[in-house]
Amino acid sequence: MPIDLLSIALIGIFLLFLLLLIIFFRRRPSQTVDQTLLRESFNRLEEMARRLDDIGRIFLLPRTRGGIGETLLEQLLGNWLPAAAWRRQYRFSDGGRVDAVIRAGSFLVPIDSKFPLERVAGLLKDDTTGEDRRIPPAERKVFTAYAREISEKYIRPEEGTLQFALLYLPSEHIYYRCFVEDPSLSEELLSFHVVPVGPSALFLYLQTVAYGLKGLSLPQKAKELRSHIQRIKSETERLERLFSTSSTHLKNLQASFDDSRTALARLSTTSHRLGDDNTEASEKE
């Protein structure tokens, strides 16, 4: 669950508990409120608030934050791409690892999902109004430094990667605040060949890749089709040679048959003449 959605859910639980507490006391208008009970109720509220704060901090710890980002990333990749089209924890030749790569034909698109959201958490509380929604310099520096690191570590054309990498932010709120409300920050990251994506943007990108993979499979199918056509052509030429040879043999056989029939006719004529001559000779005697 993205951090902003989690925070909303926790606040909702807190407000619901507070509402139930108010309703409970309003149903006792004629009774004096027990100070001990009231004190215990507020102590419980404080304890719940501390627990909610602890839970929020847990999700902002670097190790846990990275785990959440990787989990959400893997779910999106697994849901929208075939297993052969992506790989988690891809290892480069020097032993370095990137959270995931997408295979686009013979190329790789690296994806990092470990951005330190806790370092820009103040943007979630930013209530700046007006036309100027530029990201403050401190947070902007965090993004640019991280983009430079991604570029240096994961963009490796010599190992088959494309000339860009994706920076995945599991918080839609942070993505919108930083890169939609302030497009200039996107331009700064693009100068490092790093493309920032939130859950929705990554979803659209994966859909594009999925359709692209279908298109990439067409050349392979065309190659197989050409191979089959070439085989059919070779077999057809062989069959033509066989027919030609057979036709020659048939012609020779027909000629031989005609010669034999002519010889037989001549032999028959000669035989008849000899028979007739024999008969005439016998009659004369």
From TrEMBL:
GO terms for biological process: DNA recombination. The chain crosses the membrane at residues 6-25. Keywords: Coiled coil, DNA recombination, Membrane, Transmembrane, Transmembrane helix. Belongs to the RmuC family. PANTHER family: DNA RECOMBINATION PROTEIN RMUC. Involved in DNA recombination. This is DNA recombination protein RmuC.
